[in-house]
Structures
1.
Amino acid sequence: MDKGIVLFAHNNRQIDYAKMSILTAKLANKNLKVPVSLITDPSTVSWMKESKTFSIAAEVFHKIIITERPEDNNMRNFGDGKSYSAAPFSNGNRFNVWDLTPYKRTLLIDTDFLILSDNLNKYWDVDSDLLISPRYNDIIGEDRTGYLDTHISETGLEMYWATTVMFTKNEYTKTFFDLVDHVKQKYKMFSDVYRFNPIIYRNDIAFSIAKHIMNGYQQIDEYDLPDVFSVTDKDVLYEVENNTLKFLINYKDSNIAASVKDKDVHVMNKFSIIRNYDKLMELAE
Amino acid sequence: MNFGYLIIVSEKPETNYSRLAYALALSIKNTQKEGYDKVALVINDKKHIENFTSTWVFDEIIEWSGAEHWDGRSYMDQLSPWDHTVCLDADMLFLRDYSHWVEYFIKNSELYIANKSFTYRGEEVNDTYYRKCFIANELPNFYSFYTFFVKNSKLATEFFNLQREIISNPTEFSNNFLDRYKPKIIGTDEAFALASKILDITDDISYPLDFPRVVHMKGMIQNWPYPAENCFDHIGFYFNKSGKLKLGNFEQNDIVHYVEKDKVNLETINILEEIAWKKN
C-alpha cells in the first residue's frame, strides 16, 4: 500500500489502549480516508477478544500486526482532571514502526490523538522523508505551556512531539528509527549528554535527539507537521455533542469551558476518552 | 581592491586580548578562502605577540596606542590598512568560510553594521536584557562586533567622525540624546547606534539581511528559563582537533562571539595552530 496510518496499542491495567485505537482509527478513516493498521501485542489481543472488541478491530483496521510487548519499566501517572493513577506505560517500541508498517508512506499517531479534520492529508505529498510535529500547542495557549513542554531540557534542544510522525520508508528514515532505538538503549547516557531528566522514557525526547543528530547537531528550518493541538490530562472531556468536543479546562486553579470542532486534538486525559467513548464513536460514523 | 579583517586590542598587564586576537586570526586563516583571509592587528605594544609561534597570521601588525580598551575601535576607519575592512571583536572564532558575506558587502555597501545576533541554538536573540539603553532611547539595535566599511568613503567618514565625538564626549551626548536611559559607559555599540540615529542613516548602513550571523554568548540572552551570568556555567565549550566547535549539544557554523576570555587557552591555540600549519 502506498500510504496509511499506524497506531500502537499496548494495554495496561488502567487504560484500554486497544479500545481507544478503534475510535482513533475510525475517526482517521472517516476524515483522512486512508487505511489504518494497528501494532499490538498478544496480551492486548487476548483482552480484545475477551472484551469482544477484536471483531470490531478486525473490521476497522486494515491490518493488525502482532509484535512483542516492549519490556519497559516505565511507570507514570495518568491524570484524570484532579485525580491521578499510576500505571505502567509501554511505548518503547515506536522505533519498530519502520520495520512493521505495511505502508510506503506512514502517518504514526498516538491513540489519544483524535483526527477530526482532513488537515493531515496535506502532508502525504510533501517533499520530505520525515515529518514530525515541532511544537506543543496547548488549548489555552502559551500561558499554560512550560519550558519543558517545548524543550527537552533548560539548555537543550527544542522538543519535537512524536504524537504525529509521517515518514517514507527508505534508508534515511531507517537510520532515523535505528537512532531512536539507540537513544532508547542508551537513555541514561543521552540524559547526561543532553541534560534531561531520564526518570521516564519519552519518545518525544528520543525522537528529538535523533532528529538533532540527523540534522548535524543543529536546529534547522525544514518542513514539519502541524503543531500538536493538545488538551492536558488535568482537563476533562465532559461532553460530545453536535460534532463538538466540550472540555473543562483547568486554568489557574479554576475550570473554564472550551470546545473543539473540526480540528485534530490530542486528548491526554485517556479516562475522559473512555467515558465518552460511545458518543465519540458516533462522531466517527 | 584589497580586503582584510581588522582586530584592535589594547593590552594591559592583567589582560590577554592578544591571545584572543591570535586565535581569531588563526581561525580566519583556517577557514576563509584566499583573498578573504587577510588580517591586520592593531595593538598598543608589539611585545605582547612576540611569543606567538605563527605571527605570520597577522598580515599587518600596527603598533598604536592612541586609545585605551575598546575605545581604539572607534578609530577603525583611520587604522585599517585595507580598502575594504571588516572590523571584528577579538573574542570571536571563525568556523567556516564566510567570504560570500564579504563579497556582498564589497559590492553593495560603503558601511554595514550587524543588527542582530543569535543564541548557540540558532535562535535570533530577542531578549533585551543588555539593550535597555537602546530600547529606551529608540536606538537601532547595532552590534559593532562585525562592522564593514570602505576606507575614505564619505558616508563612513562622516559616521566614524561623529561616533568618535560621542566616545570622546560621553556625558554631553548622554545628557542630550540618551536621557531616557543613561548607560554607565557609552560603548562602541551605543556610540555607533547614536551616530547612526543622529545622521539618520540607519536604513543605509544596517538594513535587514540574513547575515552576518554571529552567535553571542552573553548569559542573559540565551532564551533560558533562568538567569545566567556566564553561559559556560551551564553548557560546555567543546573545541575538537578539527577546529569544530560545539556549544552544549549544538554544532556551531556561524561566527562565535564567545565573550568569556578563558575559553581560548593554550590548548585551543595549539589546535588552531596545527590546522593552520597543515593548511599552509
2.
Amino acid sequence: MTEPALPLAGLRVLDISSFIAAPAAAVVLGDWGADVIKVEGPEGDPNRRIMHDSANYPTADVNYPWEMDSRNKRSLALDLKKPEARAALDRLIATADIVICNFPPLVRDRLRLAYDDLKAVNPRLIYASLTGYGEEGPDRDRPGFDATAYFARSGLLDAQRYEGGPPGVPGPAQGDRATAMALVSSILMALIHRMKSGEGSWVGTSLLGNGLWSCGVIAQAALVGAFLAPRPPPDRPRSALGNIYRTSDDRWLQLTIVREDKMWAPLARAVGHPELIDDPRFAMVDERRRNSAALATVLREAFAGRNYVHWLAALSKAEITFGVISRPQDVPDDHQAVACGAIVETAIPDMPRTLSNPIRLGFAEQRIAHPAPALGQHNEEILREAGLSASEIAALRASGAMT
Amino acid sequence: MTEPAEPLPLEPLPLEGLKVLDISSFIAAPVAAVVLADYGADVIKIEPPDGDPHRQNWKNAGYPRSNVNFPWQLDGRLKRSLALDLKNAEARGVLEKLIARADVMIVNFPPPARERLRLRWEDIEPINPRLVYCSLTGYGETGPDRDRPGFDITAYFGRSGILDAGRYEGAPPAISLPGQGDRATAMTLVAAILLGLRRRDQTGKGGWVGTSLYANGAWANGTTMAGAAIGAKLPPRQPPDKPRNALTNLYRTRDDRWLQLLVVRDDRLWVTLCTAIDRPELATDPRFTDREERKARAIELHGVLAPVFASRTYAEWESALAKTGIPFGVIGRVADVVDDEQAVHAGIFADTTNPEVPRTVNNPIRLGFAKPRVSGPPAAVGQHNDEILRELGHSDAEIAALKKAGVMG
C-alpha cells in the first residue's frame, strides 16, 4: 500500500470519522504515505452523498467531493452498535498507530470509543479528536459544522459583511479543510512525543478554535477592547481608489492604488475620463477622499462599460496596481496553480485532476490519488490483516455487524 | 480541552530543545514559528535593524484601532529577537553560526531575495545538512508568478476564487479579515516542518519543506475547486431571502441577530424541526413532505420559516433548539466570543503575563500531554542581541566589534 520513501510510510491510520475536517486530515496523512482505513457505518459516511444533499455544492456527474476526501483510503463497513463489530474493531485498533474520530463526546462514550477505552487496547495509540466546540463545556456535544462552528460562532461571518448587509457566506468546507491542517499538525506532534516517550496520547482540535485562530487579529483586538468598523459597501467606499468595481461581464476588479499622486492621471486616462485630472473635486488625495462617493460613481460607470479582459489589458498597460479576483473556474487552468502544486493529476479516469494538500516537501512527493473506495470494499482484506480468521469473519457477517 | 481534573502531566513540551530561526516577516511564516514556540521550541527571530514591518501593522487602517500593539503580542510571542542587517557582509558569520546549530529555519523572502541574500536551501545545506528549511511564498517556488509578493488578501483569497465564491448572487465579492488566510496557512507550515523533522529522525537528513498562500487558499476552497477542475456547474450563492435550500439558510431573529440553520440531514430531522419551532402541522403539509419538495419549494418554505424565526429572540431559539440535535448556530460577534464560555472550555484563549495585553489567542492544537507555554511581553527589536551572540561563543570584545561594524543596525 505504501512507498517507503514517504515520511509517513508504515503508519496505520483508522479514520473513524465523517464529513470533512477529520477525514481530510486522514487524506493528508495518506498523501504522505500512511495506510488509511476508513471505518464507516453500514450506510456509509454521509459525505458520500453531500454533493446531492447540499444545494451549495457545485453539481457534477462525478462524486468529486467524495473522491477528494477519500482518496487512497480503504473502506471497512462495520455496524459499531453491534458488540461483535466493536470486538473486531479492537483487533484493528491494536494494530493501528493513529485513530481519527469526530463523534461528539456523548456518542464516543456510548460506542466505547473514548480515548480511555482505546488506550486500554493500545497504549501506543495516538487518538486524534475533532469536535465542533471543544471537549468540555456546555456545547461540547453539539454537532458542529464549519459554517456554524468555524465561521459563524467565531465572529468571522459577522466581521465579513458589508455595513448593513447580510453576514458573509463561506464556501463549502472552507473551514473544515483549514482545520484539517491543524489536526495533522497535532498528530505529528504526538508522533514526536511517542518517539521520545514510547507512549501514545490524546490530541485534538475544534472547528471553533480554528475559526478564531484564523481571525486571530480581530479576536486579539477584541481581547483588548478594540473592534473593527463595519466595511462600507463599494458604492460609498472610504477611498474610491482602494475599492472594487464590477465590469460589464460581471467580474470584479480590486483597485489598490497606494501611490495616488503618481497614478491618479494615468488612471483617469485609462478609464477614458481624462477630464477628471483637472476636476477640482478630485484634485488631491484629500479632495478625492472627501468626494469618494462621487468619484466611485464615475469609476463604477466607467468600469461597467467594458469587459474584464479589456480592463486587465488597459490597467496593466498603464501600470495601475489591481488585485485579481479569480472565479473558481479560472483556477484549475491557472499555470501558477499548477506551479505551486495545488492542482495535480490523478489516477481516477473520470476525475483526472484534483487538489493536492498544500504541504510541499523537497524529499518526497504526495501519492497520486486513486479512486475512493466503495462502501465496505476492503472488509475481508482489512480484517484478515488484523488477524481475524475466515471463520471469525464469517461469524461477523452472520451477526449482521458487517455486510 | 479545559483544565483536566487530574494533575497536569509533567512531561516536557514536545518541541523542547528544538532551535528555530524565524527569518521571516509579516504573518503566515512568523505565526508558524509562534506555534512551534507555544509547544516548547526556542525561537530566535532575526529582524532587520528597523524590525519586522509587522510591528507597525496595528496602525494600519484595516486593523481595529487600539493604543496597544495587540497583533504583535499574537505573532511575536515567545520569541527572542536578534536584530541583524543581513545586507552587511559581516552579519553572515553570525548568521551561519546560528544556522549551524539550528534545527529549523523559516524564511519568506521571494526567491530572488533569497538568492541575493544566499539564503536558498542549496546555500544553506552545506552549512547544516540536518536543517529543516521551510519557505513560505505567495504563489509557489516556480512558475510565472513565483517572485510576486503575495499577501493573504491577494494570494489566498483573491487568486484562489474564495472571494468570488463567497459572494451573494449579484453582490460584490466577499470580504476577508486581516491575516485570516495567513493564520490558516501557518498550520500547514507547522505540519510541513514536523514532517521534515520526522524524516530527519528517520534518515538523519534535513531538507526543504514549504507551502504557498495560493495553495492554501485553493485547499480551503478545495470542494469548489475540485468541482471546477472537472467542469462542475458552480451555483451562485442566493441571498438569504431567496435560498436554494430553506433548511440551510440564515434567518433574522426578533433581536436582529442572524440564526444559521444547517439541517443537512433533513431526511431525519424535518419532523424534529417542525416540532421544535412549534409548527407541527408543517410536518404533514403536503407541500413539504419530502426532501425534493422542500428543495423545490425553498422560497415558499423560507416564506413560512422567516416570520417564525423573526418572532423570537436568538436566546429563545437557543433554548428551543439546543437539545433537539438540529444543527444551528448564531452569527457570532467577536465582541461576544471573547466572553463565550465555550471558547474558554475549548482552550481558545490564554492568559499572558503581559499587563498591556493580558489575554491572547491560543493556537488551535490541543495535546493531552502538554499545554502551550504562557507568553509574556513580545521582544523589542534586538532585545536579545547580546544574549544570543554570547550563546554563539562571541566575547564581549567581539560583540562590540560587530556592533561597531553596523551588523546589528
